[in-house]
Write a structure and sequence with these properties.
It contains three helices and two strands, in the order ββααα. The chain is α+β, with helices and mostly antiparallel strands. A two-stranded antiparallel sheet has the order 1-2. Strand 1 and strand 2 form a beta hairpin. Helix 1 runs antiparallel to helix 2.
Length: 67
């Protein structure tokens, strides 16, 4: 069973994808990897590394960006 994130996260990607709900570390990792092109940044890479860790759900942090 995949590690669960304490609270599901809704992520919006402009275009045909729209909103995605992420409920597990595996889903977060897949989302980050699938949307990496065009989003290559230190924060994106750090998030991917966090998902790859053994205790990723416990170590995860939420970063909020406001326009």
């Amino acid at each position: 069973m995949a590690a669960k994130i304490p609270v599901p996260v809704a992520v919006y990607i402009a275009g045909p994808i729209g909103f995605t709900v992420i409920e597990s570390v595996a889903q977060a990792s897949d989302f980050l990897f699938n949307h990496w092109p065009g989003n290559d940044s230190l924060a994106w890479t750090d998030a991917m590394k966090c998902c790859a860790g053994d205790a990723a759900a416990e170590d995860a942090i939420v970063i909020s960006h406001r326009a």
